[in-house]
Amino acid sequence: MFRLIASSLCLRCQRVPALPVILRPCVTLSSAENQQTVEALYDLSVDIQKVRKLKSWVLHQSPAYTKEVADLLKDMGASGSVVARILALHPESILCCPEQVEAQRELWMSVCPNQKELVSIIEKFPASFFTSSSHHDNQRDNIAFFQSLNLNKRIVTKLMASAPLSFSRPVEQNQLMVRTLQQAYTELGGEDANMRIWLQKLLSQNPFVLLKPPDVLRQNLLFLRDRGFSTAELLRLLSKLRGFVTELNPDNMRRTLAFSQDAMGCSEEDLRDIVLSCPALLYYPKRSCLSALMASSASGSACLRSQRPPPCSSSPHRSSSIGCSA
């Protein structure tokens, strides 16, 4: 029943390295601020004090392309105030040469409907746009892969913006995780006709699922199967949890379920019914479980009220939550 690809086992959980600072070999660091950079930022009404407080090292770099980057942003349709906000939020952008910025614009426009939307994305996620040129080939390959899945372009854009690390790494890693998700879905009885929509919703809810080792998904599904969930019930859970299923781990689920069962005095079968109605229960630590269970008991409901799962440190831009069905 569970034939999740064996190759996933060779990918052990490992820390994903942060994107390197965008510095080129020709960049030099001076003990004094680059006055041309400072003056150019002043002319653009950038909050210099904010830059000095958060990333003062940028002001000491040479060469810098402050005016060139600002002109390219304006050429995309960014107003002066938007340019100032982008440069204040992500001053490293001025270290990107114009050719690099232009290449990124062309790459992003292959999935963005128009430049206005691209500017909006850059304003919210500047670090995702101003990446090292060494990632360009991986970004291009990953875009081609996700487009080959017939995903909505807006979903691909969201993945690039909110989870840039998944696009900076080799495409083979994303291919392996996507195949693992697809195989889990079909082996649990999911219909091929609904695969694309299911995968699209999963990636939209939690883009960071791509950064998880594939065997995490396998371990979580095996644990839940061992707790008595049927194949059909596992598919329901996988569909409800979507990308959040990879944020779980067997040890935490075991403790949470044991605590919940003890607190409610219910049978294993009753506990499974509660989890199926409210998969978010799998997320709560003991203290949160106690307050939620007390609230549900007071209301006469067997299900926890709809709440957001606890945030995960690796997923800062998480979108909608997993709720509880009535």
TrEMBL record:
This is Mitochondrial transcription termination factor 2. The keyword Transit peptide applies. InterPro entries: MTERF (IPR003690), MTERF_sf (IPR038538). It comes from Labrus bergylta. GO terms for cellular component: mitochondrial matrix. Residues 314-326 have a biased composition (Low complexity). PANTHER family: TRANSCRIPTION TERMINATION FACTOR 2, MITOCHONDRIAL, TRANSCRIPTION TERMINATION FACTOR, MITOCHONDRIAL. One of its GO terms (molecular function) is nucleic acid binding. It holds the Pfam family mTERF. Gene3D superfamilies: Transcription termination factor 3, mitochondrial. Residues 307-326 are annotated as: Disordered. Keywords: Transit peptide. Belongs to the mTERF family. One of its GO terms (biological process) is termination of mitochondrial transcription.
